[in-house]
Description:
By secondary structure, this protein is an alpha+beta fold. 15% of the residues lie in helices and 31% in strands.
Amino acid sequence: MTEARHYWLSTIHPEGRPHTRPVDGLWLDDTLFFGGSEDSRWRRNLAANPAVCVNLEDGEQAVILHGEVETHTPGAEESDRLAAASNDKYGYGQSRRDYEGKELLLLRPRVVLAWTLLHRDATRFERVGDRRRGPAAGSADGRDPRPARRSPPAGEGATGSAPAPPCRPRPSGLH
């Protein structure tokens, strides 16, 4: 997510039609920060319905984020981090004043889906409060509160001929 230059953002038009467009953004602290003109169609869509789906351009290494966009005004320290990340990624020459006290949009995904081989390493992460829960985490009582995965049954691969490896997050996944 950090290295992606563009993110495909899908919003919902007030009449129910999907609307998808690429946006620039920064991935920091498991959060996508981005912005854009309030007059744009996609921003007007978000004003009516903050639900979004965001995915990367790369269909071979899929990462799909689901959640609701919020507005956010960064303080000094966060603005310094955003400017540094923007300069590293895009080379725009941003500074603290480009972010501090200005309204940004952010997405803290509620659900993240990721895979390189769909039927072999598909992984689902869910946000619980301010914590991210991966495939191996469970609730405080040790039970996994996530709904059942829709993966091949244990011991079957995509074709039913080879054992499927356990689901696990990809090392390059969300960081």
